[in-house]
Amino acid sequence: MISHRAVRAVLADSTISKDPRNWHAWTTGQIPRDWPLISWVAPRNMFTADGPDHRRLRDPVKRAFHPKRVDAMRPRITAIVGELLDQLAEHAADGQPIDLKAQFALPLPLQVICELFGVPEPDRPHMQRLCDTAFDQGRPGVDHAAAFAELRAAVADLVAAKRRTPGDDLASALANDAHSGLSDAELVDTLVLLVGAGHETTVNLITNAVRGLLTHPTQYTLLRGLQLDDWGVWEEVVEETLRWASPIAALPLRYTTAPVTIADVTIPAGEALLLCYGAANRDPARYGTDADVFDFRRPLGAHLAFGHGPHFCLGASLARLEARIALEALFDRFNVALTVKPGELEPLPSLVACGTKALPVHLTRINRAKTARAKKAHRR
User: Fold this and answer.
1) pLDDT over threshold 80, residue 214
2) DSSP class of residue 346?
3) Which of 81, 174, 317, 380 is 20 to 30 A from 243 via CA?
4) How far apart are CA 61 and CA 69, in angstroms?
5) Which residues contact 304 (CB under 8 A, 6 or more apart)?
6) Which residue segment(s) compose the domain that 283 sits in?
7) Based on the structure, what is the number of domains in the chain?
8) pLDDT at residue 235 in the model
9) pLDDT at residue 67, rounded to an integer
């Protein structure tokens, strides 16, 4: 059993590094450049740096994800969600099932992150395909090194365009900041990281939240009896989803710089560690014997879905905001039901991401007058 305590301790251990130059197999050339996880190791950005170098790479971006600045994005996120739900209403009007992941959970964070970085609208589908290919370890027959190189080239083109014609976006700000301290390669790798991670986590968070509610009928019934405009309800749903089905289940990689003992196992220096956040977040010692059950009213201690310590996810506040807005609006407008049995939902073939390939559902518009009468009768 992977314990919450052990994973948290590793995340806080300064002798365990994020820099692959501390990995013996990497420095001696044993890891080929076409390795499926190459996109998680080769870049030079905040994800693969420690200490002062990590702060140097992280600080130029950190301001863009300050909670107050993220909250200022709420009106635009709400507008995008409304547009997507209007489209869903049109598709659902004929009674046909829809893929809620492909038609709602995926386009929302993609549009938000592309607007944040100023990716031109015609280029967004191509950027999405490149991210999916470069970071998808479960796709057979993929040359991951080539896919990652193509993604880097696309982002480098974006940086060049922002230097020629700056806009009011984060890519322009970083590309034209003479004091950022980022080299061109570091800038490109930073933007690749943010564009890739900026949508993957939120896609799976929204999808897994809906899946959790629909595969736990008592939870869905409980939700329907609550005030759906209560922000606290959605905070509970989102945080339980992050625990129950962490969107990033395991994150490559960390490296020992000295011998370390983890759960009675001693690991020598120069080895790579893969931490499984998904397993730690279902540790019965931390969350009780029903840790595998989705229960959004669970008394929740801190989970590790966004990491812990210096590398805590910069985009956590944005992912949470997008998910809360999306879920509140979705369930306020529609009754949602799976069109397949829970066991027929196909998991993502990924070492890193936790989610499903699709989420086929049936949507029916809520009769607000009928709902109001039912709640009034219930209160009596």
Assistant:
1) yes
2) P
3) 81
4) 12
5) 4, 7, 8, 11, 246, 277, 280, 281
6) 4-379
7) 1
8) 94
9) 81
Q: How far is CA 354 from CA 45, 102, 201, in A?
A: 24, 16, 9
At residue 375, φ and ψ (nearest 5 deg) are: -65, -35
- Cα–Cα dist 184/176, whole Å: 11
State the number of CA atoms in the 13 A half-sphere of 333 facing the CB: 19
* 8-56 pLDDT, tens digit each: 999 999 999 999 999 999 999 999 988 888 888 989 999 999 999 999 9
| Selection from 319, 70, 313 nearest residue 204 by Cα | 319
**Dihedrals phi, psi of 116, to nearest 5 degrees:** -60, -40
User: What does the pLDDT read at residue 369?
Assistant: 54
List the alpha helices (DSSP H) in 40-166: 51-62, 67-71, 74-92, 100, 107-117, 124-135, 144-164
Q: Identify the pLDDT of residue 368.
A: 65
Strand partners, 275: 251
Hey, which residues does 347 pair with through a beta bridge?
356
Q: pLDDT digit string (tens) for 234-248?
A: 999 999 999 999 999
CATH number, domain with residue 272: 1.10.630.10
Q: Tell me, what DSSP letter sits at residue 296?
A: T
- Helix spans in 215-333 (H): 217-224, 231-244, 277-280, 284-287, 316-333
Written as six digits, the tokens of 88 are: 């869903």
d(CA 73, CA 68): 9
